[in-house]
Amino acid sequence: MPVPLTATTTMRASPLLLATALCLTLSACQPAATPTAAQLPPPAPRDADLLARGEYLVRTTGCNDCHTPGYAESGGTTDKAGWLVGSPMGFHGPWGTTYPSNLRLRMQQLTEAQWLEYSANLRTRPMMPDFAVRAMTEEDRRAIYRFVHSLGAAGQPAPEALPPGQTPPAPYLGLVLPTPPADASAAH
Question: C-alpha distances in angstroms, 152 versus 54, 106, 116, 178?
Fold first, then answer.
């Protein structure tokens, strides 16, 4: 039968009981096991890294060649303040005449998610190499969006495309395709 505790009864803790309680208390204070490096997800690129990647892609994939007036003529030394504002230089061919759009205005109209969806399915008229944009990784297209969006809105909208058969005002680059040989259609 248990001995009732009274004000005059003193309780002595055994050394084994104290050691057990101390170990349990200390083990509860230990940090959770950290996952190994193989279990961690890859680090997300920082904003600064995405901006730098976007600038690199815009600079090296030819975006400025058409979408920045005077870029090619300056040997790529156009100030960034003038980048990607579209161009009045038309590209005239059998499809009509197209003009490089003002990407800075366009990116301000789109959320990142809208841009990623749009660019993954991009289908445009010549001369834009839409196939190259579709072939980019989502992370590269995200980097381009972040960079162009960070430049802010600038410039005016590019001229509207013209239909086939309408001669554009200067300046424009005329692309004249050779006439296929008369017997070429019979050979196929």
Answer: 14, 10, 18, 42
Can you tell me the distance from the alpha carbon of 172 to that of 97, in angstroms, rounded to the nearest whole number? 8
Whether residue 172 contacts residue 88, with contact meaning beta carbons closer than 8 Å, is answered with no
Q: What is the pTM of this model?
A: 0.71
10-residue block means of pLDDT along the chain (188 residues)? Answer: 50 52 48 50 78 97 96 95 97 96 97 97 94 98 97 96 96 90 67
Burial of 131 (0-12, 13-18, 19+ CB in 10 A): exposed
Q: What is the DSSP string of 59-103?
A: HHTTHHHHHSTTTTTTTS---GGGTT---S-EEEETTEEE----H
Question: Letter for the amino acid at 10?
Answer: T
Query: For residue 88, which of 18, 170, 186 has the smallest C-alpha distance?
Result: 170
Would you tell me how many other CB atoms lie within 10 Å of the CB of residue 163?
8
Distance separating alpha carbons of residues 149 and 106, to the nearest angstrom: 9
The amino acid sitting at 88 is: P
Torsion of CA 135, 50, 42, 33, to 10 degrees: -160
| Residue found by looking up tokens 């008369």 in the block | 182
Which residue reads 């296929």 in tokens?
A: 180
| 91 phi/psi in degrees, rounded to 5 | -115, 110
